[in-house]
UniProtKB/TrEMBL annotation:
Keywords, sorted A to Z: Aminoacyl-tRNA synthetase, ATP-binding, Cytoplasm, Ligase, Nucleotide-binding, Protein biosynthesis, RNA-binding
UniProt record similarity statement: Belongs to the class-I aminoacyl-tRNA synthetase family. TyrS type 1 subfamily.
Biological processes annotated in GO: tyrosyl-tRNA aminoacylation
Protein name in UniProt: Tyrosine--tRNA ligase
Function: Catalyzes the attachment of tyrosine to tRNA(Tyr) in a two-step reaction: tyrosine is first activated by ATP to form Tyr-AMP and then transferred to the acceptor end of tRNA(Tyr).
Motif ('HIGH' region): 45-54
Annotated positions binding ATP: K240
């Protein structure tokens, strides 16, 4: 539909490509104009970091705060104990309370880079749904909340239907997840005046459930807004590289590797990603995205610098850029490359094998993959092709660090501990 927003937040969402659907464009827009609106996105604590696939949601919360409203980051300390079945082929492994708490602590570091948490009217809130879910009394919950849910309707949701159509098991535990998520919205509205929930378009059914429950129990009007599920122009899921997930925590993905992920964006995605993941003006994003030939590489460097600055700071972005220039343009060894430090105990009488080093450096996942890479002339040491899979590296070869490369874009340093 064509809707012309009046609020700054809705205008940003529409112009920058964040908006897939909304339950009531006019109603939400009017609420955003009327005053400070609290809104939330839920994040389950299934790992110690979020990855790039969650960055679109984090940027939505950042824009919400930038346009004068109050973001709520809801950590799923309670719902993580159940697991979201949405569009999964299997049940999630159950985590202990200690694992969940450790994951939440790791994820909080990421939010602090994008969102301001303080006591001001637009200061963000960091909440945990274990606050209200852990102490639920089951019979009371069934009577007061469960009666508002139709099993027929729950079975019709695409996330459930897809599992059942494939005759894959869907446990009663997981089936409860959508009720708990709806209850989160109700509690956030009751406790904090939260007026809308945002999420990926795969969460549409869960969001609508929460809106319906809040209306039935509290007789309050609330709203839902979803973002598109992003894939890259070559059809890959956003946030994945050839090595797996691109994590947002620096200890799980070094700033240089993060920078390089964005620098490797395809030409077709550059303009779209500039709009979604940076705060450059829309017109500038479109101008940069329309560049062709060698010039589009400059746009990708701007993208990588801007996104890395937001997460890791300007210094880390500048260091990553300098390293990339050193490695790619001058054939040198950049200071900021991912580094493997070897101890003398890592060597046996003949040294350490080059295959093992490639694995240790994270350039390949297995010895078999290392050997295949070498047979295809894709592995290099100090920019010279590696062809001998039996090559052993002795400590004396590491008086200065060596650079290992897989293909043209992935590099690591190997050095000897001092």
């Amino acid at each position: 539909m064509t809707y012309h927003p009046k609020s700054d937040f809705m205008a940003a969402m529409m112009a920058r490509g964040f908006l897939a659907d909304c339950t009531d464009y006019q109603g939400l827009d009017d609420a955003l104009i009327a005053g400070v609106v609290p809104a939330y996105i839920g994040f389950d604590a299934t790992a110690t970091s979020l990855h790039v696939g969650s960055l679109i949601q984090i940027m939505m919360l950042r824009w919400l705060q930038k346009t004068g409203h109050k973001p709520i980051t809801l950590m799923g300390g309670g719902t993580t104990k159940v697991g979201d079945p949405s569009f999964r082929a299997d049940e999630r492994p159950l985590l202990t309370n200690e694992q969940i708490d450790a994951n939440i602590a790791g994820i909080q570091q990421v939010f602090a880079a994008y969102i301001r948490y303080d006591d001001s009217p637009t200061g963000a809130l960091m909440l945990n749904n274990a606050e209200w879910l852990d102490d639920l009394k089951y019979l009371d919950f069934l009577r007061d909340i469960g009666r508002h849910f139709s099993v027929n309707r729950m079975l019709s949701f695409e996330s459930v239907k897809s599992r059942l159509d494939r005759e894959q098991s869907l446990s009663f535990l997981e089936f409860n997840y959508m009720i708990l998520q709806a209850y989160d919205f109700l509690e956030l509205n009751r406790r904090y005046g939260c007026l809308f929930q945002m999420g990926g378009s795969d969460q549409w059914g869960n969001i609508v459930n929460g809106i319906d429950l809040t209306r039935r129990v509290l007789d309050h009007q609330v709203f839902g807004l979803t973002s598109p599920l992003l894939t890259t122009s070559d059809g890959k899921k956003m946030g994945k590289s050839q090595d797996g997930a691109v994590w947002l925590n620096a200890d799980m993905c070094a700033p240089y590797e993060f920078w390089q992920f964005w620098r490797n964006t395809t030409d077709a995605d550059t303009g779209r990603f500039l709009k979604l993941y940076t705060e450059l003006p829309v017109a500038e994003c479109e101008r940069l995205g329309a560049l062709e030939g060698a010039e589009i590489n400059e746009a990708k460097i701007i993208l990588a610098n801007e996104v890395t600055t937001l997460l890791h700071g300007a210094e880390a972005a500048a260091a990553a850029h300098a390293t990339a220039r050193e490695v790619f343009e001058k054939g040198g060894v950049g200071d900021d490359l991912p580094t493997v430090t070897l101890e003398m105990s890592d060597f046996d009488d003949t040294g350490i094998s080059i295959v093992q080093l490639l694995v240790r450096a994270g350039l390949v996942k297995s010895g078999k993959e290392a050997k295949r890479l070498m047979s295809e002339n894709g592995a290099r040491m100090d920019d010279q092709p590696l062809t001998d899979a039996g090559l052993m590296i002795s400590p004396s070869a590491l008086t200065t660090p060596i650079k290992l490369s897989a293909g043209k874009k992935r590099h690591a340093l190997v050095r000897l501990a001092e």
